[in-house]
Specification:
Blueprint: H1 2-21, E1 40-42, E2 64-66, E3 70-74, E4 81-91, E5 97-107, E6 115-118, E7 130-137, E8 148-154, E9 161-166, E10 178-183, H2 184-188, E11 194-195, E12 202-209, E13 223-234, E14 237-240, E15 243-246, E16 260-268, E17 278-288
Antiparallel strand pairs: 1-3, 2-16, 3-16, 4-15, 4-17, 5-13, 5-16, 6-12, 7-10, 7-13, 8-9, 8-12, 9-11, 13-14
Length: about 300
Amino acid sequence: MNKKMLIAVLAIALLVGTASAALLTYFGRITTTVMVSQSVKLDGLGYPDSMNVLDEVSGVAGSQIHGDLHWLTNANPDTDAIVSLDSTIISGDSDGLTIVPKFRLDAVVDQDNDDLFVIPPTTIWNDFVSVSFDCLVETGSAYLKSPHVNIALRNPDTGEATCLIVSFEYDVSLGVWQTITFTKADLGSVTPIFGSIVPTDMFNSVSIEIADGAGVITAGQEQTVWVKNPTIRAGSGPILMTWFRVPHPYTDDNIPARTVHFVMGYDFAMNAVAGERTVRTEVTYQGIYTQGFTWTP
């Protein structure tokens, strides 16, 4: 009797198990194909077209040779991208060749100011010595003033923006590269647009801006300026700022600073060896701008 009952119980267990396995384990299915387009675009091109943009230039030793004009834009509607331009000599002699991007800023009547937004090191005001850059006001420009700098500071603990300093401008000569330097004393004497300078606050952003920065460009302020070698000097020495922001678009298209115009500059020493060089420059993604406060037009 006991043996028969045991067999019956086992049979029931098997039947229950078989029935459970047949139950529906989901109640719907969504299959999605997601297409992602490139955010930062070179010359308006996305992948793979942007991977094969070519410059063909020639010149003589002792001169500055420029590639074609290129531009970067950011299609992301909400977030600024941080990128760098990284050059590698992949064939030819590298002696006597300096490669540096040169950024074009345009002041156009009835448009907002044009800026280059560089990413500063985490320098605190106590360590800061100066910020400098090389600039050239292009022939034909009406406004013979250097760009100025906008420096924002932030609280190192909270990340909150605490101060915005807008520097003065220098008189410049037409068509000549000049080094513009704003020292700590220069900037410390300027009344901040808001807040006050706190010695332990950190750099939040540095922008290099043309014209006077007070609203749209007016007649007489038109200019085209080239900028290269933005550098912060701090207690640790000079730091070349090679990372910069590609701002996200606004609904107002009348803002030149949304587009980063640049050429690759190839500066040859007088004794540079003759011959062909091939240089590859990559637009390298470095992150997003997350410090919250952005001083943009």
